[in-house]
Amino acid sequence: MGRTALATIGAALVGLVVVTSLTGLGGPGPLHRYPYRDLRALAEAIDDQAGGLRTPDDCWRTLDGASGPIREIVRVDLLRSRVVVRGYASESGHIDRVTATAVDQGIERALATDPRFSRAMVIVEPSPDGWSPLVSCPLVIRRWVTGF
């Protein structure tokens, strides 16, 4: 395949992503593409559910902006056309059941705010600095100090 053909295919794929991010595209499962404006609105709704403390690392930071911006726990992935929520995971890369349930409940509250939103628009991925709606700074600090 020549360079021209590769450039044409690349331009067509970029064009497809740009057009479908504006209009959406029906399709089965992961091929369904949502308009960017809907994904952005859902990401903001989930971000609002997260509150001030998002991760156990926030217990060591000031949340007034002096320690930098609040950690990103949700973003729009244009390539997959989904909202990606990072859930707090241990070193093993596994989100424990209690944290996963709390994250899912926060997502469900955000989904209930607008009829355009659906669970299919969201992917939850494990991250060592992801969202934990169960953050309790006294408990985090106690575990760090006592080793429990």
Mean pLDDT level:
81
Helix content: 40-55%
Count of alpha and pi helical runs: 4
Secondary-structure-based class equals: alpha+beta
How large is the radius of gyration?
19 Å
How much strand content do the residues show? Answer: 5-15%
Shape designation: elongated
The span between the termini is 59 Å
Q: Give me the count of strands.
A: 3
Largest sheet: 3 strands, mixed
Low-confidence stretches: 144-148
SSE order in H/E notation? Answer: HHEEHEH
Strand order of the largest sheet: 1-2-3
Structure, explained:
This protein is of the alpha+beta class and 148 residues long. The protein is 41% helix and 11% strand. It contains 4 helices and 3 strands. The protein has helices at residues 3-23, 36-50, 97-111, 137-146; strands at residues 74-77, 82-88, 122-127. The chain has a 3-stranded mixed beta sheet. A hairpin with a 4-residue loop joins strand 1 and strand 2. The protein is elongated, with a radius of gyration of 19 Å. It starts with a helix and ends with a helix. The model is unreliable at 144-148 (pLDDT under 50).
The gist of it:
The chain is of the alpha+beta class.
